[in-house]
User: Which sequence fits this backbone?
C-alpha cells in the first residue's frame, strides 16, 4: 500500500544553518505530496505542496521538489530560524491504494533550532 | 477568515464517562476527518465523511463514534474513555476538487487535547 518514510529526528541545528529533512514515498498512480508543520499544542498547518512530478512547492523560505524518479520530496531551507522549531510531517494523497480522500502521513521529524 | 474550529481546546473527563468533541468549518468542504494524535506522532485517521457518507477505519475501536448533522459540523463521541484514549484529537477538512489540479489541501483545526482521569 501507499506509504511515506521520513528521516528520524530530532534534528538540532544552529540558527542560520541549512536544513534538509528527507522524505520518500511509495505509491501507485499520481499522488499529491505535502509538507505540514506542527507547532507545540497546535494542529497541523500546510507548509507547501506539489501535485505532479518536477513541481516545486515553496513557502516561507522552505522548498521541496516532487521527484518521481527517486520517489522523494525532501524539505529544504537555506537558513533556519529559532521560530522554525516544530515537528514537520511529509504526507501524500491520491495514490491508488490509499483511497480517494485519505492522506498518508510520515512519522514526523522534530526540528530544534538553537540561537 | 475561513477556518476549521474545534471546541473545546482542552477537555478533561473521567474514566468511562462519555465525552463529545466538536468541530465546525466555514470552508464548505465535502470531506471531514477525525484523527487521533499522541505525543507528536503521525496523526492516526479514525474516520472520515464524504458529505454524509461515513467511512470508518478498520482499526478504529467501537468506542469511537461520529456524527455529521450537516456540512459545517462534525462530532466525535467517545462512549467510555479509557486512559489510553488521552490524546490530541484533530479535525480536518478537504474539498473534493482542487482548482489547481491534484489532491486538495487538507486543513486542520487547532485540536482538542483530551485528558482522562
Assistant:
Amino acid at each position: 500500500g501507499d506509504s511515506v518514510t521520513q528521516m528520524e529526528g530530532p534534528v538540532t541545528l544552529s540558527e542560520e544553518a541549512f536544513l534538509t529533512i528527507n522524505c520518500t514515498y511509495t505509491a501507485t498512480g499520481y499522488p499529491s505530496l505535502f509538507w505540514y508543520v506542527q507547532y507545540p499544542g497546535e494542529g497541523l498547518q500546510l507548509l507547501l505542496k506539489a501535485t505532479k512530478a518536477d513541481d516545486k512547492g515553496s513557502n516561507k523560505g522552505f522548498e521541496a521538489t516532487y521527484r518521481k524518479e527517486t520517489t522523494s520530496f525532501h524539505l529544504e531551507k537555506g537558513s533556519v530560524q529559532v521560530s522554525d522549531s516544530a515537528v514537520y510531517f511529509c504526507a501524500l494523497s491520491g495514490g491508488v491504494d490509499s483511497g480517494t480522500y485519505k492522506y498518508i502521513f510520515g512519522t514526523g521529524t522534530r526540528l530544534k533550532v538553537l540561537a | 477568515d475561513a477556518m476549521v474550529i474545534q471546541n473545546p481546546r482542552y477537555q478533561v473527563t473521567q474514566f468511562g464517562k462519555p465525552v463529545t468533541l466538536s468541530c465546525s468549518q466555514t470552508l464548505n468542504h465535502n470531506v471531514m476527518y477525525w484523527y487521533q494524535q499522541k505525543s507528536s506522532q503521525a496523526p492516526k485517521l479514525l474516520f472520515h465523511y464524504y458529505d454524509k457518507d461515513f467511512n470508518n477505519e478498520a482499526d478504529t475501536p467501537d468506542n469511537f463514534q461520529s456524527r455529521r448533522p450537516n456540512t459545517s459540523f462534525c462530532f466525535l463521541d467517545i462512549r467510555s474513555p479509557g486512559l489510553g484514549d488521552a490524546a490530541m484529537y484533530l479535525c480536518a477538512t478537504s474539498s473534493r476538487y482542487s482548482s489547481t489540479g491534484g489532491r486538495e489541501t487538507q486543513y486542520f483545526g487547532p485540536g482538542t487535547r483530551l485528558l482522562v482521569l
Remarks:
- The radius of gyration of chain A is 14 Å.
